[in-house]
Structures are given as structure tokens and as C-alpha cells.
Known about the structure:
It is a single chain. This protein is of the alpha/beta class and about 700 residues long. It folds into 4 domains: about 1-15 and about 100-285, Ribonuclease H-like superfamily/Ribonuclease H (Nucleotidyltransferase, domain 5, 2-Layer Sandwich); about 30-95, no CATH class; about 320-530; about 535-710, P-loop containing nucleotide triphosphate hydrolases (Rossmann fold), CATH 3.40.50.300. About 45% of the residues lie in helices and about 15% in strands. It has 30 helices and 20 strands. The strands form 4 sheets. The chain has an 8-stranded mixed beta sheet with strand order 13-10-9-8-11-12-15-14, with helices on both faces. Helix 11 packs across helix 13, helix 20 runs parallel beside helix 21 and helix 24 (about 565-575) packs across helix 25.
Amino acid sequence: MVSAGRLGEASGRPASPSHSSGLILKASFLHLSGISEHRERELWRHRVLTWAALRRRIATGSSPVRGWSADDISKALQDCHNALAKRDVAFFASRFPRREHYRLALAFPRETVFLDIETTGLSLYYDHITLVGWSVADQYGLYLRGESTDRLREALARAKVIVTFNGSRFDLPFLRQEFPDLALPAAHVDLCFLARRVDLGGPQKEIERRLRLRRDGDIADLDGRAAPLLWHEYRRGDVGALRRLIQYNHADIEGMKDILDVVVRRLLLSRRAPRTIWPSYRFAHLRSSLRWSADRSRKAKGRISLPRFRGDRPSVSLASLAGGWPALRIVGIDLTGSEKRASGWCQLIGREAETRLLHSDDDLIRATLDVRPDVISIDSPLSLPRGRTRVTDDDPGRDSFGIMRTCERVLRRRGLNVYPCLIPSMQRLTERGIRLATTLREQGLPTVESYPGAAQDILGIPRKRASVALLREGLSDFGIRGEWLSREVTHDELDSLTAALVGVFFWAGRFEGLGDRDEGQLVVPDLRTDPTPWLSRRVVGFSGPIGAGKTSAARFLEERGYAYGRFSQVLEEILRSRGASVSRDALQTLGEQIHRSPGQRWLCQQLVASLPKMGNIVIDGLRHPEDHACLVEEYGPAFVHVHIDAPEAVRRIRYVERRGSAEELVEATAHPVERNVGRLADLAHTRVMNTGSLEDLKGVVLHFVSAFLMR
């Protein structure tokens, strides 16, 4: 409820809207083509205050519109009379400038609907409507999510004008998205913009404060940020929260009536409109009230009941996401910009989560290595904007390439709050995140970037700054168990748990990767995506020392329809582009150069870019732990890593049989590019000791690949 304080502009005796409602419209001439605001004021100054008066002036032979004949104007005025007689607001709405639609509200006050929606958040892309409230004259109506929209549709169908606050950018786009066939009135008054014309800018509550309008005590301190929280509390069984949400919505609507009254009078005063055409009534005199009913069925006419929430719980659960991987191991990290401040760390194994606070990079790395996770999800930017070379503002590319990546631009366009990765307050975090991810990937640990705040918005969970308690309860709804439920946990730990949950969405193929290959991707949950393509393909990677048989195994899978790729293909293309000859020595030398800069991850990404986007793939010649990490990040659970080995004597015989020499094998094996091959054995999903025939190797490979991907 909104009540006026000592506000002279909103005072006065009530008057019947029908008494003067048509005067402002009949005294308006802006809808006539060729008449400007200045010309309209001139007509008023000369006491031309009605369409009839304009007709009389035309009869004297004086046309107020250049290029129009008296007959033209007379016909236009007759059309106006006919439209008004039919109460055809669409006729006038299409002819008046949008900024003048308030005149139509004044002309049809009892057919003007004041409307306000409540939502789960600000993102039109991810959030949804929870409540729609409206008032026509002294009646208040309500739609709750999940109920029939009949009353809402009926109210809007009868209305001729709709009044909102910031509805052009918020309420109406949400309504059109959720109810595409909803008929909205042709005339729209957006008070947010109308009020600015009389120097009343800012949020609605700020304008109310400036006008000394007061709300009831129990909702006086509520603002727009509270509405999503009240809905979350209602979803969890607090019917009192729904009552407060309805009261808040009702107060917004009644406040709009007061504001419109004030704005209209200030506008008419600034336009020097004659007092005789001012409306003598106030919308605030057409107040609605909340009448509560104990009937939870909401069938009591004219009364509002408070039904218990019967809506949905999360549409997915941890069990449904990771059911095929009961021992899936994920680490989530909510990274801070300094080792002096604790970072949240979480290990999620199956459905059991354990969280803690860790400070140094070394502590984070040790704890993560102990888990041996399938994937790591870090809440921190893990890359720079394309073209940038360092995080600081003295980067030569600062002005040309900016401070924001593609993923951040996408989230902002979708209405989610995200900081650019290189604003001053984010630079240290971005630098630390890139450094930590590089170290983890060098250990062969797949690492993806996540943003728990965005994930929480997408999944309909309040963020930590809104309510730590509701964030905790929202995460528990996904079926995550563990000691974190029975002790006090910090918001950093809850964000690390959210990051781990994003890792599960990634593994299950229920995610969207925002960004591109140059900048890397930010992983966010996507409940609408079909995970089948992600889960149904097979991507097999072979590693092992020279002569172990990995190329023979890869070619065997190629014969069975797999697309074949190897790291040396990228190197060969580079050598050919330089006009250099292709040899093992040249390939190894170039491979070592690229490993130092631009890095092994770059080489892996170039290979992936050359491979088919769909279908099965076999990749020959993994040589570094970064290769394993990169391929898991690219293909998730579809990637299976097979490490093939053989005794040195066996490998020597095979190498010599291929027209090499034992000395060449020793030299090739000792090259720096081969130094990490042995480390890949510990990262592989299986190891094969290839001491038998080629047919034996084919059988082992086929059996394992089939078994691994049938899990």
C-alpha cells in the first residue's frame, strides 16, 4: 500500500473519471500529421481547445497545417470523432508519438491497466515470470506462475492502455516471451521514461521517496532484489513470503498511480496546457486494496488466497546428470585474486562433496592432484581477450582489443551480471587463474572455466550476495551430499561446490560453451541442449614411445571408419607453408619450438580444429600431458586415452624393420619432444603392452574401446 504524505500535487477531492476524461484527448492535435508540439501550444494560446474549435477555425478559411486543405483537416477530424465514439484507442495510439500515450490513459482512465511483473531475475534469456499483478480502476488482479492465465488475458483484452514502470525493457518483453499470444493494449505508458521528462529519474522507489510517498512498514524496505528471494522462500514452503511478494507487487502498482498523477500535472504545466483541459480526477483516487481469503483454492471472488507451492523442483539432479559415472571425480575452485585470501575448494566424487578453504596455489594444486579428478572447474577467467598479451593496462593492445572477452559480452547481452576480465579489480584474479590453469594442464588435468554466479542464475538458485542460506538449500536440492550440509560453510565454499556442479554439467553434455577457440570457452549449464551428440561419439587417442605400435592401432581404427588425425599433420602443414622439407628431425625440432611458444595447447587446438565436428575420431601421437588435458576439455567423456608400450628390444626390432637403424631410434627417443611420453601412461584410461602380433593389438584395442564407451 502506498500513501501520500504532504504532497500537494496528489491532493484534492475525487472526481468522476467520466466527467473530464475526454477533454485532454479532444484538445490534442499532435496526432494530426504536420502539427508539432509548438504548433499545438499556439492553438491552445489562441483558445483552440477542441477539435470542434479547430473545425470552426477552418471554416474561416485559415488552415493551421501547411500543405493541408480545409477538407483534408475536416476529414481527419471526423475520423478522430468516429474513433473516439468507437473507443478505438489503437487508432490514436498509432498516430500519437509514443511519448504522448499518457493522454490516452487520461482519456480512458477506467480502461487503463497498471501492470507489474515479478521474476526470478533480470535475464530475459534465463529467468521467468513468477507473478503478474495488475490494477484496473479500484480492482487488483493477480497471476501466479503455474496457474491459469485466463484472468490476466481477460484484463488485458478489456484494457485500452497499459501503464508500467520500465515495462518497455522489462515487463513487456517478459510477457511476450512467456505468453507469445497474449494480446497487449495498443497504447503503452512507460513511467520510467515519462517521469524523466519532469526531472524524476531513477528507480520507482527513489521517485516515491522524492515525492514523499510512503509504503506500509512490513514492505517499506523491500526493493526489486527482494522479489526473487521471496519467490525462492515461497518455493521452499514459506507461504508468508508469497504474501509479502504480493504486497510488494501491489505497492508498486499503486505507487505508479501516484507517480502518473504527479508527472501528468507537471507535463501539462510545462506545456502550458490550459487548465480547462486538465483532468480533475486522480488515478490515485482509484485505489485497489488487497483482500485476503483463507480459501487456498483461490475461488473466492475478489479475494486473494495463498496456495502452497506446487511447482517444480530442479528439472535435473546430480543422479540424473552423472548416473552413468557413479565415481565421477570433479574439483571445483572459487579462486581469489590473492593467495592472502582463501579460495573455496571442493571435491565432488559421485554424490559426495567435501569443501574447504585453501590459500596458496601450491595448496590448491596438491589438494587437486590428490583427487586425480576427471575435470577441474575454476571460477576465474582463464584467458585474455583476443589480441591482448598481458593483464595490465600498459599492454600495447589495451586500446585496440579492450578488456572484455566474447563470453562476457554474450552473458551481458543475456542480462547476466558479469565483470570484464581485465577491469583493474579483476586483473590479478585473471592472471592467477591463467597461471593456475596452465600448471594444472601441464600435469594433464583437464581444466574448464566456470562462473558460479551465472550458473546459479541459470539453475534458479539465489546467488551468495542475495542469500547464502538459500544458495545452500538450492545446491542441496540437486542431491549433493556430504559434510558441508552439517556444518557452517562460507560462500566461497558454496561457490566452489557450484563450480564443481558445473563440471558435472560439462561431463554430462548439458552445457553451453560461450566463447571461441582463440579465447577459450566459459562453461555454463544448459538444460535445453541435447547431450546425445556429445555422449554418443568416440574419440580415441593413442600415446606411447616410438615403435610401440600406436600408429598401427590408429590406422586400424581408421579402417573401421574413424576419422584419422595426428599432431604431426599440423607440423607438416607448417613446414610446407615455410617451404621446408618434412622429416622426423624437422618435425621434432618444430614440435619442440611450438611446445615452448605458442604452446602445446595451441598445437592441440589446431589439430582439433582440423578434425570433423561429428562422428568418431582417432588421434595418433599424444606426447605431452597437455594433449590429454586439451582433448578431454574438447570431447569430455567421449575421449578415451590408450597408452601403448613395448619392451625396448621389441621396439628396436620394429623400427629397424621399417628401414631405420637402432642408432636412429636411440637418437629419436632422446629428443626433448619425446621426454614426456612416459608421463602419459599414468594419465591414460588403459595401458596396452604390445608384445604380440598386429592382430593381437587390434583385438585388444577394439575390445577396450568398445567396453569403455559402453559404460
